[in-house]
Design brief:
The structure is a homodimer.
Chain A lengths: L2 H16 L3 H11 L4 H14 L9 E6 L6 H14 L4 E7 L9 H9 L7 E7 L11 H11 L2 E6 L4 H7 L4 E6 L5 H8 L7 E4 L6 H14 L4 E2 L2 E2 L2 E3 L8 H17 L2 H29 L3 H11 L3 H13 L15
Parallel strand pairs in A: 1-4, 1-5, 2-3, 2-4, 5-6, 6-9
Antiparallel strand pairs in A: 7-8
Chain lengths: 339, 339
């Protein structure tokens, strides 16, 4: 197909996605996952349009992490019901650890079971991790951008503590960690710095009584007064998805964090730095630290990416082409340590 | 210094390391961590000597992983006492998650507190993770090789579940996972395939009674009969480092696994595949998937590395030089997916 025709197609799809049309959203997400050249070009054009001023809206990207067994899926379903009552359009990216045992679609299935399947205002997409052990697959960030154009609230839900949780925290406007009551792990991970400090901490299963209360107190102590992110003091909330308590308060807290980011003009800055992070991570994966050094090093490159205001895949492709060219001038010191 | 003089120095150091002399071992480990060119050359020469036939011995590399709070340090200390009673020389690499809070030397300190500091037969080295979040730092494998030349048993101890635990399982002859009694996390991680199946599973804190017994039963069920590694049926053991029970049995089980690997000729094969894995991982980090493709792709490269029988750093440097040469012929398809 000609480039111009592709451009028309991208424009049409962008409008339909921004209107929140489900088939268009499904198609756009498939497109980002399609490696054929024509699909890739269309995806690049689509993202360029959706990231342009025309489709800007103050959507909220929320990362939901925590160990298995903490009741995340039930809590997410309860949150979604609250958002729907408030008239918000909701998108969910459920990122499962890929596993031969679960087939990797557990989270999305659980969520679908617990929310109304016929509600047009909730869009759920399951993504396996595809063997990228310990990290989120590359598609998650571009897919989030597409969903943000279509929905008021987008939630990335994932399981576990480690690289995946770190990746989510470098992607979401607001990170919410759901701790397991009774297990000291979350507290220990926090104390040891293995767990990045989230914006909101939740102990679900309030119905477990004393055990949940103890975990709540321990998390509060572990955080202390020192854990702040700008003007934000990290709250530790208690919910019971089973009894439906605390969910409204959690939704309010998440919205409050979003409002502060918007008020302080941090949302845009944050998303642009996340975009730079995504691009550098992809380039690093394909061309290594040596490639990043050829582009002037990580800091220089990040500064350039943040300053440029281009769309995600356009920026990525431009720098990728530089590195595929062996005569591209070396931008930095390439005499790396053997480590 | 001239290359010949460096060679003499390496030979001298190799002999002293193999004799188990503590200052020599300490110096060799520092050398692997020193990025200055002369040190790097000496380290390469040293490793080439230690990996040559002259210094081969049937040492055992054991990886000890598990969540924080499972009592790993106490258990390790108890194991070390048993090994010492059996007359074995012991080396420990304690790999801590780097954390601004702990400074990253907690494990080694804990261990030193619990073992005799004056025992010449135990050598402990602490290593922080140095910001390589979720993974072991590159030095761990070369340092293990040096320690294996000096000690009968070498233990790599680390905290957490995720990339670090995966890295240990791709390095150690025998991986031992210490589960936390009462927390369902280990069971859930195993079931979900987030945790690689270790060769030996231990529930420490037998003294916790019913809680520990329940975890033991759950782990046994989660493993089922299906988890075998060659001729090895993964055992689930119960210990109490506090009461000293089960430690001899654990030491026996670990030794048994080692004996089976030696008997079946798997130890050498396994270590060579680990060496290839280490080299590919380093090259991938510096030159990306594009670089690996230039060397013919991961599988071809792994096969070459395993077939070549050269020492670790010699092999690594040779392939690294190829990739630093922009005119090195492309070995494979470099038209990578955009992700």
């Amino acid at each position: 197909m000609e480039r111009a025709a592709l451009g028309d197609k991208a424009a049409e799809l962008a409008v339909a996605v921004a209107r929140g049309e489900r088939p268009a959203l499904a198609r756009a997400l498939n497109l980002l996952d399609d490696r054929r050249p024509a699909a890739r070009q269309l995806a690049t054009d689509l993202l360029a349009r959706l990231q342009s001023g025309d489709f800007q809206r103050d959507s909220h990207l929320i990362g939901m992490t925590g160990p298995p067994g903490a009741g995340k899926s039930t809590l997410s379903a309860a949150l979604i019901r609250v958002w729907r009552q408030r008239g918000l359009g909701v998108g969910v990216l459920a990122v499962d650890p890929s596993s031969p045992l679960t087939g990797g679609a557990l989270l999305g299935d659980r969520l679908r079971m617990q929310t109304s399947d016929t509600d047009e205002g909730v869009f759920v997409r399951s993504l396996a991790c595809r063997g990228e052990f310990g990290g989120l697959s590359a598609e998650v960030w571009p897919m989030s951008l597409v969903m943000l154009a279509a929905c008021d609230v987008v939630m990335i839900e994932t399981v576990g503590v480690g690289q995946r949780e770190i990746d989510v925290s470098r992607m979401a406007d607001t990170t919410c960690f759901v701790a397991q009551p009774g297990s000291g792990d979350s507290v220990q991970f926090l104390k040891a710095g293995i767990l990045e400090v989230p914006h909101v901490l939740v102990v679900n299963k309030e119905d477990m009584g004393a055990v949940a209360r103890r975990t709540l107190a321990e998390l509060g102590n572990a955080l202390g007064r020192s854990h702040r992110d700008g003007n934000w003091q990290v709250p530790v909330l208690s919910t019971s998805a089973a009894n439906g308590t605390g969910i409204e308060a959690l939704a309010d807290t998440l919205a409050q964090h979003h409002a502060i980011l918007l008020r302080d003009g941090q949302l845009d800055t944050r998303r642009r730095s996340y975009q730079a992070h995504w691009i550098i991570k992809r380039l690093q994966q394909e061309f290594g630290t040596h490639g990043i050094a050829r582009l002037g090093g990580e800091n220089t490159l990040a500064a350039r990416l943040v300053a440029e205001h281009q769309s995600l895949l356009d920026q990525y492709q431009a720098f990728r082409q530089c590195l595929l060219n062996p005569t591209y001038p070396e931008g930095g010191n390439t005499d790396h340590a053997q480590s």
